[in-house]
Design goal:
Strand order of the largest sheet: 1-14-9-2-3-4-15-23
Helix content: 25-40%
Strand content: 15-25%
Number of helices: 13
Distance between the termini: 91 Å
Length: 562
């Protein structure tokens, strides 16, 4: 065996197939004259190996050069190993640092009742995230940005509430805002931080944050809409400012000069001051834009301005290629993890990143934002209620993962209308489940049996009750994917016989049978409750904003003077 070319290291064993790996055999002393190489290519002739160098002693500088090369390669390999290990450790520490920034909370306050939408034929499910803006002044940073010292220590309100819905195929997205002064039924909630329990009540939706935290806001949305909400995210004033700075600003537009300051008999104001035209706002000015209410005439105008800002931010991030730029992502991740509070299911940087990537492929013209259809509250003109009929249709579109674009809905409807004829009623087996306890009340006794009898009276003699426990805010008629178009046709025939809308019919993964789950919306009665009549499109009169259109806000005339 040869000796190591580096004193004090002892003998170095040969690496097998070193030549084939591209390594220099000269690093090993047994590759000198007469020693065959591992691949059998050694010539065994010292004179021939030394040819051209004068042979003999003049071959030594050649070996010395190889020993020097060996040392250089060894140190290069060592440096590379240190670099790799160091980068990996730094990356891990950075990742843990970002995770440590995140503040997390429980998804629900104990009364989440909506049922998660079943996967589509490709195994995809829609994504629903509740976005909450808190008006808390309980930090020095938030107090500096708005409010008086008397507001410190007060219970925060959820002044901004938006539901982001991304379709299962990730081809369209919707954002629905509910005005803060909407009166709704709030379910019983329990604060996960202190265990305090709040009874069910009927009051303004912005009070939900003080009745069990963001989880109670989520539970209230589910009760109102019947839409399963996967996660919530919450941000305060300071967080909005930091995020706006991190993005680098977003373009907004006003048709006239705007100066949102206190007026006689109208206290408050965001302080927003802009000349007519388009401006890039960030930091505190971005917060002023998002808070402006009086100059945009109402809370509904404020919601529209918020939607315009959101669209602008998304366009800005896409233009910057921020979803692919590692440096930009790191900066945004640092700010986002410090600014956001999130439900625990998405409490890691990776999950937040994955959520962000869900929006990357949605075309801007397939992104629609609007404010809930509403009517004045007869108990108080300053408050509103969800508009019967129109709001119901909007919630149904979200539950059914339908686009808010009427053209897209028309295409989907055409596809679903084609199919085989339904079987004879007596040949269709259907299982009936009592799901009337989803609203937190006790289930209606023998409800499944009562509906089964109604079905049998309509000729569906194979209808039977199921002992499986069920829970559904809204009644559903589901068929397994394996039954295909025939299963859908059979389900539609039942829906028609029971005077149910076609929206109750849904496909679910294999493993079950045709099932009618009687929801909390049909606790009693022999006739399926009809939604209030409203033939208007759910987008009509809702300050709808499309992502492909920048738009420009009208300024209420008293606030046009600079």
């Amino acid at each position: 065996m040869g000796r190591s070319s580096t004193p004090g290291e002892g003998t170095r064993p040969r690496v097998r197939h070193a030549g084939q790996l591209g390594w220099d055999d000269g690093l090993y002393e047994d590759a000198k004259a007469g020693a065959p190489r591992p691949d059998g290519s050694g010539d065994g002739d010292a004179a021939r190996r030394g040819a051209g160098h004068g042979g003999g002693r003049r071959g030594r500088p050649h070996r010395a050069g190889k020993r020097k090369k060996h040392r250089i390669l060894r140190w290069a390999a060592l440096s590379l190993a240190v670099l790799i290990l160091g980068t990996g450790a730094a990356g891990y520490l950075w990742y843990e640092h970002l995770n440590g920034n995140l503040r997390k909370g429980h998804r629900s306050a104990g009364n989440s009742a909506a049922k998660k939408t079943a996967p589509n034929s490709a195994g995809q499910t829609p994504l629903n995230i509740l976005l909450i803006g808190s008006d808390s002044r309980n930090t020095a940073e938030n107090l500096k940005l708005g409010g008086s010292k008397s507001s410190v220590g007060g219970i925060p309100l959820a002044d901004v509430q938006m539901l982001l819905h991304v379709s299962a195929d990730r081809k369209n997205a919707s954002v629905i805002s509910i005005p803060r002064d909407t009166r709704v039924d709030i379910p019983a909630c329990e604060d996960p931080d202190n265990g305090k329990k709040y009874p069910a009540t009927n009051t303004l939706i912005n009070e939900t944050l003080g009745r069990g935290g963001p989880g109670c806001t989520l539970d209230t949305w589910e009760k109102l809409t019947g839409v399963y909400i996967d996660h919530w995210m919450m941000v305060d004033f300071a967080g909005v400012v930091d995020m706006a700075d991190a993005v680098g600003g977003a373009d907004v537009c006003v048709k006239q000069n705007v100066n949102d300051v206190p007026k006689p008999n109208v206290p408050g104001g965001s302080g927003l001051r802009l000349t007519a035209g388009t401006h890039k706002v960030k930091g505190k000015q971005a917060l002023q834009w998002l808070r402006t209410r009086h100059a945009f005439e109402s809370d509904f105008g404020r919601s529209k301005a918020q939607h315009m800002y959101m669209n602008s931010v998304i366009r800005e991030l896409k233009d910057q290629d921020a979803f692919s730029d590692t440096g930009r992502l790191m900066g945004l991740a640092e700010t986002a993890t410090k600014s956001l509070q999130v439900s625990e299911e998405i409490g890691t940087v990776k999950k937040l990143f994955d959520l962000g990537m869900q929006l990357k492929g949605v075309p801007m013209d397939k992104m629609n934002m609007l404010t809930m259809p509403r009517i004045p509250d007869p108990q108080d003109d300053n408050h509103v209620l969800a508009k019967p009929g129109a709001a119901d249709k909007l919630w149904a579109l979200l539950r059914d993962d339908q686009s808010l674009d009427p053209k897209d809905r028309a295409k989907n409807k055409k596809k679903k209308e084609t199919g085989p004829a339904a079987g004879a009623p007596a040949s269709i087996g259907v299982s009936v489940v009592n799901g009337t306890a989803a609203d937190g009340q006790a289930p209606t006794s023998n409800r499944a049996g009562g509906v089964r009898d109604l079905l049998r009276a309509k000729g569906f003699t194979e209808a039977a009750t199921s002992t499986d426990p069920g829970s559904a805010l809204t009644t559903e008629l589901t068929y397994p994917k394996s039954s295909g178009a025939q299963g859908r046709s059979d389900a539609l025939s039942i829906a028609k016989a029971m005077s149910m809308p076609t929206s109750v019919v849904k496909e679910v993964p294999d493993g079950g049978r045709l099932t009618l789950t009687v929801g909390s919306d049909w606790r009693t009665g022999s006739t399926f409750p009809k939604a209030a009549k409203d033939d208007s499109d759910p987008l009509e009169g809702t300050e709808a904003v499309n992502g492909a259109k920048a738009g420009c806000m009208d300024v209420y005339w008293p606030y046009r003077q600079m």
